[in-house]
Amino acid sequence: MPDAHQPGSRRLLKRLRETLAEAGEGQERLDKITALIACEMSTDVCSIYLFRDADTLELCATEGLKQEAVHQTRMRLGEGLVGRVALRTTPINTADAPAERGFRYMPETGEERYSAFLGVPIQRLGERLGVLVVQSREARAYSDDDVYGLEVVAMVLAEMAELGIFQSSADGMSARHKHPVLFRGGTGQEGAAEGRVYLHEPRVVVTNPIADDAEAEVIRLREAVDKLRYSVDEMLSAAPLGEGDQRQVLEAYRMFANSKGWLKRMEEDIGRGLSAEAAVEKEQSSARARMEQVPDAYLRERLHDLDDLSNRLLRLLTGQGQDDGSEMPANPVLVARNIGPGELLAYGRKLRGIVLEEGSVGSHAAIVARALAIPLVIHASRITTEALNGDPILVDGDQGMVHLRPEETVQNAFQDKIAMRAKAVERYASIRDLPATDKSGATVALHMNAGLMADLPSLPSSGAEGVGLFRTELQFLVRNSVPRRGELAALYARVLDAAQGKRVAFRTLDIGSDKVLPYMKPQDEPNPAMGWRAIRVGLDKAGVMRMQLQALIRASCGRPLSVMFPFVAQLSEFTEARDHLMRELDREARLGHTLPESVEVGAMLETPSLAYAPQKFFELADFISIGGNDLKQFFFAADRENERVRHRYDCLNVSFLSFLEWIVMRCDATGTPVSFCGEDAGRPLEAACFTAIGLRSLSMRPASIGAVKSLLRRIDLSELRKVIELARTEGEQSVRARVEAWLLDNTDPEEG
């Protein structure tokens, strides 16, 4: 058995449990713990350092150092040996601490008398909580058993900290999960929402980290691992033979689930005195720590598999299942590390907001959130470790900020913001059926973007004149296999039915880059945004394109059909894709199927190269849609998924506006209708500038149409063009400041 030698760590953990069971305030408990560890490990010093904030460690309890240093000694993350342990989340064991690289002398603690130093991180599932340190006057390296034993104790301290056992009103040691926290992330979908936290995957709380009966715990662990292995085998046997990539993932799962080393390490942890759950979580924390250090994407993904398996195993051991039994609150704000499109669609419009630790502006989750008009904040680091089900939360999608458990003043200000939005929506409703005609008489067509059937009810209520972009990839992304032609035809027919005669421009499958199908082999390209994606995949995998075109033709059933191809970079790609459509029309005619009343074939202009295509392209295309999101990133060479650069460049930069004017001029020369489609089209200031330089059609999310129409009806586009020309003549880099000033002087905010 793994506990045959009866290690001292078990005795220490038993005494630790007895100490923690005693009544007392948080500080009193910390003091008792440091005294206990120093005694049991025969060391001169034991100290506990906890994080005061994300970057600052504070000495919170000590046995052996000067007591007056408690709550006074602080250090930055990475500073001194303690700071290095916290930063690297790995132990430091040295016989001569003052000679060790990075040592920081802190005279107020009196630690200069101690030579030997052993520090281990206090962490839980990748969250740094602090550092546990022992020191001795004698110059000696602590044994492997000492290191291992101290890590086990640190694991228990982490669990106890999670349960709030060290909370105290004294010295600012406030309870975890109680105080207000501000998270600064990125905007995935604009909007504001107030509600209560609903965790997508509630954390398993280990309430029994220390166990008495090691043999019983090992039996529990092995039984749970057997169930885990069986469930993975079942998933593997149920996976279709053709789903190669899905099978590879499950094979990796099975490899980890059957790993003897993984099971052996957990059994050894139990032998040291941990419960089965705590042993699993200790290994999971180690995997998370390794995950952060590994540069190789493939290895990181494999460690993520192990992390996921650990979660499954914890749920089996605790019986908590897929959730903790919490009911969804009345105004749920979903909080998750990440989430797939299918899972997000399952929640539907009942969500008030979404907050993700990961994600990207072009991720599947962001696409679905935009389709459902749900405010989304991404890159809210560590919110899943801080938030609890039911916590009050404010989501500011405009600023990419989240207020968890907000103070009253913040909440009042946020409610004022939501109220102002509501008043604006009322004002926009009054002009819903009026045209977007400016004071000079110029009219702009405003269309909506869509990708789900759930979007279509917004068509009449938003005031949109049609659907300028219907994303067809979402039906592919939410499935585990390629949809059938009949299924797609039925869906596209329902879209056209819901549009009630208004134009719908269907964009063919736009996959690749950040939109990878679950059943599509990842390409591991160094720069996927400029790689094998969209029309390039469609032309190389023509079978899928032809199937989708057939579905669109059959769905139209005598109605007008508008099809556009994404990410076209040169004339030959457009002509080849167009030829595919013409051949499918001929084929459907030969089969006796009803053809569309009319067919428009267009292209998304998302690469600068297409703006300089031969005139034949502009003559051949029935319409062109400028894909602003991609075009901007390629024009400025600024990856829109990179937070360091994506806000660096302004779409009202004179160079970009001049480029858009060039596209409008080329389209005007051949009489080719052109529109601007993308997030910037839905921002009133940007929309006004785009229309002032000649664009007369915009496509945006439904919620933006009212604000854009309201502004366009209150200005004279010919006058605005003069403002833009003046800024350009005077050498300004962006027209934004000049236009903002002009709008302040020339619009009445209460006008409709």
Number of strands: 23
Low-confidence runs: 1-6, 169-173, 241-246
Mean pLDDT: 83
- Helix fraction bin: 40-55%
Polypeptide structure, described:
The chain is an alpha/beta fold and 752 residues long. It has 27 helices and 23 strands. An eight-stranded mixed β-sheet has the order 7-14-13-9-10-11-12-8. An eight-stranded parallel β-barrel has the order 16-17-18-19-20-21-22-23, surrounded by six helices. Strands 3-2-1-6-5-4 form a six-stranded antiparallel β-sheet. Helix 19 links the parallel strand 19 (561-565) and strand 20. Helix 7 (260-271) crosses helix 8 and helix 18 crosses helix 19. The longest helix is centred in the first third of the chain and has 25 residues, at 214-238.
Feature tags:
752 residues; alpha/beta; 8-stranded parallel barrel; 44% helix; disordered N terminus
Short description:
The protein is of the alpha/beta class and 752 residues long.
